[in-house]
Structures
1.
Amino acid sequence: MLDLLIVGGGPAGLATAIHAARAGLDVAVAEPRPTPVDKACGEGLMPGAVRALAELGIAPPGHPLRGIRYLDAEDDARQHAEAGFRRGPGLGVRRTDLHAALARRAAELGVPVHPVKVDPVTVRQDTGSVTAAGFTARYLAAADGLHSPVRRHLGLDLPDPRPSRYGLRRHFAIAPWTDHVEVHWSGRAEAYVTPLGPELLGVAILTGERAPFDVQLAGFPSLAGRLPAHASSAVRGAGPLRQRVRGRVAGRVLLVGDAAGYIDALTGEGISLAVAGAAQLVRCIRGDRPLDYEQAWRRASRRHRLLTDTLVRLRAHPRLTHLIVPTAVRLPSLFTGLVNGLA
């Protein structure tokens, strides 16, 4: 019998597997898709995520990020606020490169990845084990993404009365003009510009309006004017982004990564939270205290959840949205402190 079966071999699932293997647990991953898998992602790692990955022996290739820059997309004067990272750089890294690096590290540690799709209806548990798709383990970690089928099957989803938000991402073959992640704020959306390599930029747009990428990008004329006419990748999309969860533990099944609940991609902390959540999950099941995981997850994500939720609530009110960049400009110490609190 396995100690831990992980459903989902994306970054969260592989980070959990790596933590488990390093802790001496017998772990396996069920993932039907070949690695690497490309998905919609801002592709910017905050310094905390870079350090956490390094501690696991993972150093993906990418472009160093020195900070965050907020710009008002509707201000002709292009006022902006800039906050540098105080504890080392972040990293702009292609999602596929990150996924491949995690997969290599898991393989080095001897973690088997089975090309099996786990139907959530096959998940059964008793007082001592969980079975799913022919596997038996003491615990199961559901790392099956934003719209987790395992979470839904267990009845852990909660309705969300707020308007939905969506993300779109595309790449452009152009030399980055900045070593910061640029966040361009308009009245209806944000555009995130992330340097990924010597001749590669990622542009992700977060919005409450469903429209093609080019239509969304037209709402940022200054940014659009700096980009090549033709993109170098297809559009990837995700959403609705916000996923409310009743709890992260159901008996011997624990949720990790985006499956554990998601507010928004606005602060770019998905990978950091996935790695932190993976560490807490492994610590709790290693001590046979799965119920401790809920509180541990909340503690690890509290700061992120508070700031992200506050910004999303401001985003819902256009008049308040227009105050975000001017406020950051007027209060640079506060802006720098908030950025580094997350970083």
Note: DSSP finds ten helices and 20 strands in the chain.
2.
Amino acid sequence: MKRNYLAMVIFISTLLVILLAVTSAPADAKWPAEPGKSLKRDGNLRVDVANISEGYFYASLQSKSKHRMKMRVAKGDTTLSYDIKNDGSYELFPLQLGNGKYTITLYENVSGKKYSSAGKITLNVNLSSPDICFYYPNQYVNYTKSSDPVKTAAKLCDGKSRKDAYKAITNYMSKNFVYDFLKAVNIKAGMLPDIDDSFSKKMGVCQDLSAICICMMRTQGIPAKLMIGYADKNYHAWVEAEFDGKSYFFDPTVAVNGVSKVKEYTLERYY
């Protein structure tokens, strides 16, 4: 009887360990708070400013629109443009330009290529750390706790240092993915990376592959940037991580294609 009881205790303990390993998020992962706690409003623009010290803000329309909407985030001489949903749902955007004053302006398409201002909000940002926004998801690197690459990264990197986790993730990307040439031909301007769909297919274009890689890194406590610009003369996306005082460069497209290295990368923006 005692032997059976002991066996049952061991079985239940082992099962709990397995379940925790599969379902729990890594300790270093950072997840955004739910939106709607501290709002600023102007015109049709609504911004949640509760977590700007963590390097991100939520934005949405106050009321739905039938028109295409754009949002510009400006700080100093730098302006970043985004498409924003016209259904009133929140989207998360990074404050990747460091401390200081940000101006967020909403624009509504009125006819042809003409847009009119539909709201403007300013934020005075003081980040908790310079790279804090590169630990969180955002509109371009969009994932949740239930995303498969998050779970895969947790298994791949369990117990590893950040350097070894970085190697495990880049090796996994190199060996398990292919470039989606068909999607590359048919891709439309403004299309965002689709992490979940591309991960399930094990294929994607440059921004998909880079976003998957960054998702896996960020949820393992590795701050990583989605870099967008030019590889030689081709519009392109790649990855840059920074930890332990060093920068690490990785181009998933080159890795999965086995093509010759790019001679020059020219950065345009990053997320």
Note: The chain is about 30% helix and 35% strand.
